[in-house]
Write a structure and sequence with these properties.
With 264 residues, the chain is an alpha+beta fold. Helices cover 52% and strands 10% of the residues. It contains ten helices and six strands. It has a four-stranded mixed beta sheet with strand order 4-3-5-6. A two-stranded antiparallel ribbon has the order 1-2.
């Protein structure tokens, strides 16, 4: 399953960016809701473990996800996750990486169509792996921004682009809007320079530009106004305003100009 290898590569790129950090570095706040680096890696490690548990022990997963969602409702997501993961700093980084390596190697040989549980409806193993890559990439953006580093992107980002396309309807439903009958067409340029055409080929609404920028918008790591994407038509404009490729309640993208790579 290629998605498992892509998840591992995404994780290793992020690990390389933080391999030199130590001590108080981990308490630095990112532009993502004021989360510290510790918060980011607790979040990634916790949900990687939950995804793995959904495969290994479905009944245990169902019981734990019920407790987790109750905790998030009562105390919030950071308090719930931070109570569940005791590790911090370099120890957290290495435990997270070890889990990524082990998980990717085991999941690579699975049937991509096998079903596993998650928050809400169950999903395929392939979709679960794609979600883990997406989370790693999206939260990793906040890390790279804080460190003033530029991430070297590759065409494995296609998994996230496709996830963004597949959640077109979800983006409208989660925000209480009627799903438009026709998805816009997309003309995106991959990191390799390849041309990716997705969506409805004959649609009049259009989104054109960088595949990376599109992934940033659907993961809400950038506001559409902070990208060079060309957006034509009312459906395309509304989608890019509320796009959300992740589960949970409705979330809005960051205000323009609030997420960017810091100067160092």
């Amino acid at each position: 399953m290629q998605q498992a290898r892509d998840f591992l590569e995404e994780s290793e790129v992020l690990h390389a960016a933080v391999a030199h950090l130590s001590g108080s570095d981990w308490d630095r706040k990112t532009q993502f809701k004021g989360w510290t680096l510790n918060d980011v890696f607790v979040h990634l490690h916790f949900w990687n473990e939950m995804a793995d548990l959904s495969l290994a022990a479905p009944d245990d997963f169902a019981e734990r996800i019920e407790r987790t969602m109750a905790g998030i409702g009562a105390r919030g997501i950071r308090a719930t996750e931070n109570a569940a993961v005791a590790l911090r700093g370099e120890a957290l980084r290495e435990a997270w990486r070890a889990r990524c390596i082990d998980m990717a190697r085991r999941w690579e040989g699975l049937d991509p169509k096998a079903r596993v549980g998650w928050v809400g409806p169950e999903m395929s193993v392939r979709s679960s792996m794609t979600a883990r890559q997406m989370e790693t990439w999206a939260h990793g953006q906040a890390v790279f921004d804080l460190l003033g580093a530029e991430r070297r992107e590759t065409d494995r980002i296609r998994n996230i682009v496709v996830l963004g396309v597949n959640t077109f309807g979800w983006s409208f439903r989660v925000h209480g809007r009627e799903v438009p009958p026709t998805m816009p067409r997309l003309e995106l340029v991959a990191p390799s320079g390849a041309q990716w055409r997705l969506g409805e080929e004959n649609a009049t609404d259009l989104i054109r530009g960088s595949a990376v920028a599109f992934a940033q918008v659907v993961t809400q790591t950038r506001n559409i106004a902070d990208t060079q994407l060309e957006v034509e038509g009312p459906v395309a404009a509304e989608w890019m305003r509320i796009a959300q490729c992740f589960a949970g309640g409705p979330e809005m993208p960051p205000p323009p100009g609030t997420r960017f790579r810091r100067s160092v």
